[in-house]
Specification:
five-stranded mixed beta sheet; 4 iron, 4 sulfur cluster binding; about 10% strand; oxidoreductase; dihydropyrimidine dehydrogenase (NAD+) activity; alpha/beta; HdrC_iron-sulfur_subunit; single chain; 5 domains; elongated
Length: about 775
Amino acid sequence: MGNSDAKLLEGLLNAPASGRILSKDMDKYVKDCCNGEKPPCRCVCPLDLDVVMLNTKLQKGNFNSAYTMYRDKVLFPGIVSKICDQPCLNVCVRKDIDDAIDMLKLEKAIVDYTRSTAPVKYRVLKKNKKVAILGAGLCGLSCTVKLASHGYDVTIFEKKDKIGGRLWDLLSPDIFIPEIENQMQFFEYTLKLDTEIENIGELQNHFDAVLIATGKDGASFGLLEGLNRDSLGSAIKGIFLAGFLLGTTPMQSIEQGIRAAQSIESYLQTNRMHVMLGIDLDKTSRLRMDIGKIEPSKGVKAERYSKEEAVYEAKRCLKCDCRDCINACDMIKRYNKMPKRIAGDVRMTLNPVESLQPRVATRMLSSCNNCGLCGTVCPENIDMGDFLLEARRIMHREGSLPPAFHDFWIRDMKFAASEKAYVAKNAPGYQKSEYIFFPGCQLGASEPAYVERPYAYLLKKFPQSGIILSCCGAPAEWAGDEPLTKEITAGIRKQWEDMGKPVAILACPTCEKMFTKYLPQIKKISLYDFIKEHGLPLNHIVSNAAVSIFDPCSSRYDESMQKSVRELVLKAGFAIDELPYREKTAQCCGYGGHIYTANPALAKDIARKRIELGQNPYITYCTNCRDIFADMGKPCRHVLDVLFDINGELRKPPSLTDRRNNRVALKASLLKNIWQEESYEERQKPAILISPELMEKLNKQLIVEDDIRETIEYCESSGNKIFNPAKGYYIGHQRQGVMTYWVIYQVEEGAYRIINAYCHRLTIEGE
């Protein structure tokens, strides 16, 4: 993200507490989005023909609809389809792959196969304005068509005894005369042949506007000097010049006739020259197409296309548009909305009263993984993840972001930083640390050995290595809770200072990303860079199996970490079969942004797509990736499994309850085995008995044993429970934060057996 984008986002964040953001401010962030931009073929077409839409109609064999659209743009399809110089051929993306789309032959096919070439007759309200047009060539006739169709009183003055101008040098009159008569048959205008105008001043006394389109070497009445080449207006009010008189090609003459009509109408409406109402002169295309993935398809070789050949040729059209972000991002693809549309929906969400609409984008902006891939693939570097994260922050600040979307993850983060799991200690016998190991909150939750064995390795290499077991604050950032994010990261910084400002050794790519963003003063190195530099552990796995490295999305900009992981895996003997999305284009596993609560279907779909990227077992270096893939049956190891011979590729992930228990056990193990200290132990409580099937359901609902225990203890102490004598169980509920939990349980000796449990984000009035 550039400095200008950062300042814009900062401005959005510092908006008034109501969250009302001016539309222009929101739109600035996506103003450079190329999606929807005109493709090169349309940009070079003098008549601004929408080639993509035209070919879309032809692809369906809809020649009648294609003809209507074609006629509306070119005015004289029977002429243009025979004399167009095809500038689109030179810019068609396909020309660098196989053959450019032959639009001229397609245009001929449109004229050949339409049901009727007759124009539609409309009732037009007459306007009390008179326009004189000098010249009945392509430019003058085109201007007449446009002005007459809008009800203006048009008179054409032609000094020769025939219409058509240069068309007599290009086509047989048997072709162009019937076409002009056909297309102009329903327009009311006056044609005066053999009439040469010698005094332009006299015309001004009888007409409100004059177009001089007298052709090559025709009379300009000394008005070329001072001509505005955009509006085609002269230095004299009400007089315009256009066409072959200005050295145009036939197609440019038609375009200038149309443009002159627009300028004349603007003048007649505003009484001002050079007012470009409805005129777009931008002829540049910012689209950049990646031709590497385009399948070759040779063009049709025929003098004249049959219907079937025309449809085939039209289907070769790539419909050029920038869709890099939607092709890479599952969230954008799911909602089928491009950045400008997303920004519009977010604007309505942040300004619901102003737009008189509900908050339409709340779930969408909470479905973003915040992985940054869209910004990486975007040719304009537009990162919608940053944009949507700022929107979450604004909504969190004003209290409109549903707390339930992130409630579980915030409570889990706070558990990791609580007395039960938090550790911050220098190595035994040292008051300061040279290094500190910061494994993050999820590594030890998945497998305590992921922390214990690397830390033992570090102590052997550098005995003055401390450790901090906590969370980097990513859940708070993803929740849009900026104060909490700052509180967590400030706590880490304070602890780091107290330990002597050591170098941080990070095992989690997300932690590395958070440290880079919020703790830039802390010098850091990845665990994998450290091991590569100091040597593999002696007990690492040795294998010649083929595997694929799954790069976590948060490792995208840490090239060193990505290379170190690969080198370590190769040194262990594995053969690496790379995935299509990796390194700079690494994709999220579905965990990022904690989208599961807001959009569980999308989170699952993302994970499914990731495991389908490769057939080999995966090795990754993010425990969230590993556990999500393993839960869906994909053979997968964490790289630490390889480096320290911890687990195989088929290990099932722990439940949410076991993850918390693992954190508690990890703290106890480290304190006992390294510092010979005892950790805090809670008093013995009745056991909670949960079947594996129910535990799987509870995991999906983000319910942990602590939630169930707290609800049962409340029900037992308050008596707020109902007994079902037929079933022999109790049912009770309790509100904890933003969630209300229901538990159905039986009381057994020294234990509670859970029959079912569920939760909802609701309150019960009166409680």
